[in-house]
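HUMAN: Now follow token order:
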Amino acid sequence: MLNNRISTLIFEYLNKQGIKTHYVKTLNDRDQLCRRVRIIPLEVIVRNVIAGSMAQRLGIEEGTKPSNVIFDICYKNDELGDPLINDHHAVALGVVTYDELKQIYAMTARINEVLKELFAKMNINLI
């Protein structure tokens, strides 16, 4: 129930900021009505601060603030363990075009800024 309330808060906030989402409305304590979407098998991970696997992979101290926001892309494939890939891999796999990637990065950057503002109101830093 708590997850549903948090998701509702986030998706309604994004929608109010003009960011289109799959969310339509909350039906009850456990369910939401969502639009059908075409799933792109990519996960974009936004890093405002170095932490977790990135800190381990690159040998950078956790908590280091990079000079720019970092976007990691993973290919969503359970059999392969959702590997970290780059833009050229995503295009070569036929998952997206370069133009679509440009749109994905622009949307992701906007969503990151909006969510940073939302969470800052609650004294939470988006890592």
Q: What stands out?
A: Helices lie at 2-16, 52-58, 87-92, 98-120. Strands lie at 23-26, 32-34, 42-47, 70-75, 84-85. Residues 1-37 form one domain.
